[in-house]
């Protein structure tokens, strides 16, 4: 809502400004807010850490650094998922409107919903596969307590969804 308030207050009415503020900026903000929400909801993983395992699945310790890496990867994948799902249909709808392919607002709304559903269905597997579910972290990147408890060079953690 804030970009729209600025647009109306300062009478920024050019078509390019309206495209950016009404269509492109909300997608970017949605992606950022989604990433921020993941970070806030999973903040205990920053403070407490997550379990780190060796190749055999034996828990070696709890690492805050692995927790930070897992949360960062999940936040990126969510930002890409929701940012793209909001961004692409907006841009495509803009071109459909300009080409006057669809005659009525009701048909345009239907086309927009179809595009949103299609992009979401396509982006969901992409987003979930951006980073592996079982993440890898090098031994040297972990806390000293974990370094002393194992000789493995690479350890693993469950990234979460």
UniProtKB/TrEMBL annotation:
Protein name, entry field: SFXN4 protein
GO cellular component terms given for this protein: mitochondrial inner membrane
Membrane topology: Multi-pass membrane protein
Alphabetized GO MF terms: monoatomic ion transmembrane transporter activity
Keyword terms, alphabetized: Amino-acid transport, Membrane, Mitochondrion, Transmembrane, Transmembrane helix, Transport
GO BP, sorted A to Z: amino acid transport; mitochondrial transmembrane transport
Main location per the UniProt record: mitochondrion
Cellular localisation: Mitochondrion membrane
Record field: transmembrane: 20-41, 75-96, 108-131
InterPro entries in the cross-refs: Mtc
Pfam families referenced in this protein's UniProt entry, alphabetically: SFXNs (PF03820)
Family according to the record: Belongs to the sideroflexin family.
């Amino acid at each position: 809502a804030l970009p729209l308030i600025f647009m109306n207050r300062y009478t920024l009415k050019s078509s390019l400004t309206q495209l950016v503020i009404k269509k492109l900026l909300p997608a970017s903000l949605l992606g950022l807010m989604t990433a921020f929400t993941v970070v806030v909801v999973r903040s205990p993983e920053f403070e407490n850490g997550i379990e780190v395992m060796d190749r055999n699945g034996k828990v070696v310790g709890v690492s805050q650094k692995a927790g930070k890496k897992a949360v960062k990867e999940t936040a990126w994948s969510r930002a890409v998922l929701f940012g793209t799902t909001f961004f692409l249909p907006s841009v495509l709808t803009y071109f459909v409107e300009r080409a006057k392919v669809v005659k009525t607002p009701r048909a345009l709304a239907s086309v927009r919903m179809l595009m949103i559903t299609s992009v979401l269905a396509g982006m969901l597997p992409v987003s979930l596969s951006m980073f592996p579910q079982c993440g890898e972290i090098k031994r040297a990147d972990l806390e000293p307590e974990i370094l002393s408890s194992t000789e493995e060079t690479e350890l693993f953690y469950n990234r979460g969804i």
